Amino acid sequence: MNTHLRTLVIAISGAMFATSALGQTIQATQSKLTAEQAISVQRLRELRWSPDGSRLALTVTAPPKGSEQQRHIWLYSPVSRDLRQFTNSTKTESHPRWSPDGKTLAFISDREEFQQIYLMPADGGEAIRLTEGKRSIDKFEWSPDGKKIAFLAPEAKTEAEEKKDKDKDDAKVVDRDGSSGHGPSGVGPGNESYFFD
After folding, report:
1. Is residue 197 part of a domain?
2. Residue 182 domain-assigned (yes or no)
3. How, if at all, do strands 82-85 and 71-77 pair?
4. Would the pLDDT of 10 be above 80?
């Protein structure tokens, strides 16, 4: 790891450490880490430099609250050493991606029923939902000219599939000889594998 990156990671980790409950509760003389302190550590992921290299967007996983653990996007400026939380909804945000001109940050959030892509000015403001659908978006990237975003999401369920889900109907049709009626491999139309005794 080069010296600049090592310094950056140490600076960000130090800033995050100072804002975490762990940083507030561990004294310099204490040498053992408790389970409660270990759980309260914030984790850094998905580090993305802005196109001009002046800012770093990263995802911070907050300590769990009950059974849920939220992630939010933070911005770090190595020049000013300013670290600030960029998103602050009651839901989770992740996958920060800078627009090619560095003026907009796109991210994925589960603010609605399914994870969708949101856009937010890099200097702050309100997030605007860009996509809408009945499936969560997994990944996305900006086009080089910044005019489009390509994303991956599973195909939406058909009305028949939605009805089966609503009715909790997960039955599979299998012939008496053990075949699924989809060929000798035992693979269904949705690539489900079937195993028979």
Report:
1. no
2. no
3. antiparallel
4. no
